Amino acid sequence: MSKPFDLKFIPFNALHISNLNMRHSETAPDIDDILPSVRERGIRQPLIVRREGGTAKAPKYGIVAGRRRHFCLATIAEDGTEIADVPCCVMDAKDDALAIETSIIENVARLAPTEMEQYEAFKVLADKGQSVDDIAAVFGITPNSVKRRLALGALIPDVREAYTNQQIDAASIRALTMATEEQQAEWIALFNSDDYCPLGPQLKAWLTGGGVITTDKALFDLAEYSGTILTDLFGEHGQFADTEHFWESQNAAIAKAVEAYKADGWKEIILGERGHYFPRYNHAAHPKDQGGRVYVETRENGEVTFHEGYITDDEAQKIRRALSNGEAKVGKATKTNRPEMSGPMADYMNLHRHAIARAELIKRPDLALRLTVAHMICGARNWKVDGTGSRSRKEETRTSIESSKAEALLAEERRAVFTLLGLKGEHPQIYHRHYSPYDVCEIFAQLLTLEDADVLRVQAFCLSETLAVDSSEVEAVGLLTQPSFGDYWSPDEAFFTLLRDKPTINAMVKDIAGKSCADGAVTDTAKTQKQIIKNRMAGEGVAKASPDWLPKWATFPAKPYKAVDGCPPAQAARRIAILFKSA
């Protein structure tokens, strides 16, 4: 087997830069780092050359690798120094492929060439018969990397030129490798005009005339798909060229999956509208054999998720009520006595309990941290994040909450957190109804300047601000912190306005005035009995006032006057009490 190189000493004036050198057309290179060494010691590493022109007696040689060393010698020669014959490794003049390999390897080892330079070099090797795998093996890269560079060859000249001149960014040029020549021509015309021109991810969507749907979203067998799939060499997955055709196949696959669920015993499969998210936050897990449904969520990007075993929260609550009433089977709601708490009263009490739990939570960053992590893992109704949920339709309830001590503490903390976050404004507000005016990175950067204790303080407030009303989390915080309800709240006019159930009012009279008084007033109107409670609190007609009296509801956990089911806070506390017995 012949040697690929022969060592020769060649006169300097017989050397020139070969056209096969991948940098032959570039301007003079920077040689400041090696010129002093070449001046002092000469060429220590042979140039790699091949026979190119000249005569038998005076042959000429093209430099394939060693361009910078040649420029050093030329600079020294310009100073009038005589250049000795140059040591060179001469390769076979017929082996263009090997010459290209040698040039690229030498240049890649020193300075990574551009993608377009690599394409041009790889194309010469491919034209000489080298396979993609062979080219990849020579340079120690993956075959896909070679394919990516060669894909640039599919670009029309105007696009390649714009990319070479760095007018087109890498994301856009990669998207254009998926385009037809007609699409490239249309796009470059837009690019050179004053009209809107899609770039990067928008360019991918422009190529398909719609959204980008990648092949990993397909429920069907790609081998059986009759439409066009664009090969994305720069992405992990291909892209469907015709989104309408994709949806025809995807919908057929969804229908097939629905039939499979029915055959598997699921009674009901709910198909959500495309683009609508499944609201898991107001659904509860429920087994198939007890009526659980399958909800199908379909997103605009083609992704389909089958949520198995869910019913609505309202349905789950009805089932829990029926089971707590001892009903063996869950049927239609049976007529019951009037609950001790009306809907507005439950709303009123829940909002005050919510405010107190939040006010306690800002004092306990350790609890807030752990509850935050639980929210991150499991989700929660308000983890959007939304800080506008603690509102009531009743004006008297809103007034009562806004003037409460708990809300005053929260307002004070809101101002402090607003300042810690470096925010400015006359009315401190962290959360907004429809959007956040703050930039995530700006807030993140500000948090990085704070001590851990201050970050925990901010976190505790944010969790307090987003804690959902009428949630088991409120009861959990109350059980763990055991706040003194009376420190925050006492029965106000709104409370008495919303208090309507006569048996419950009479039980409250018994609490504050004793059994005999309650029995004596049992046939009185609700208004009269409520006035008895007010009088006792104020000390009117009695030896000693009871200003600190609180209803049984005003404690954690709440205690009902009648059945637990008629007192929503007590209901919620009962569901979770066992979880926190040892906490």
List its traits:
4-stranded mixed sheet, alpha/beta, Conserved hypothetical protein from pyrococcus furiosus pfu- 392566-001, ParB domain, 583 residues
State the distance separating the first and last CA atoms: 82 Å
Give the overall average pLDDT.
Answer: 80
Strand arrangement, major sheet: 1-5-3-4-2
Give the amount of beta strand, in percent: 5-15%
Rg calc: 39 Å
Weakly predicted, low-confidence segments: 107-112, 330-337
* Backbone structural class: alpha/beta
User: Percent of residues in helical segments?
Assistant: 40-55%
**How many beta-strand elements?**
11
Coarse morphology: elongated
Q: What is the tally of helical segments? A: 25
Largest sheet: 5 strands, mixed
Structural write-up:
The protein starts with a strand and ends in a 7-residue tail after the last helix. Residues 107-112 and 330-337 have low confidence and may be disordered. It is built from 25 helices and eleven strands. The protein has helices spanning 35-41, 67-78, 96-110, 115-127, 132-139, 143-151, 157-164, 170-176, 181-191, 200-208, 243-263, 313-324, 343-361, 365-378, 395-402, 405-420, 440-448, 452-465, 472-481, 485-488, 493-498, 502-513, 515-520, 526-538, 568-576, and strands at residues 5-10, 15-17, 47-54, 59-65, 86-91, 229-230, 239-240, 269-271, 283-285, 293-298, 304-312. Strands 1-5-3-4-2 form a five-stranded mixed sheet. It has a four-stranded mixed sheet with strand order 8-10-11-9. Among the domains are: 5-102, Conserved hypothetical protein from pyrococcus furiosus pfu- 392566-001, ParB domain, CATH 3.90.1530.10; 343-490, no CATH class.
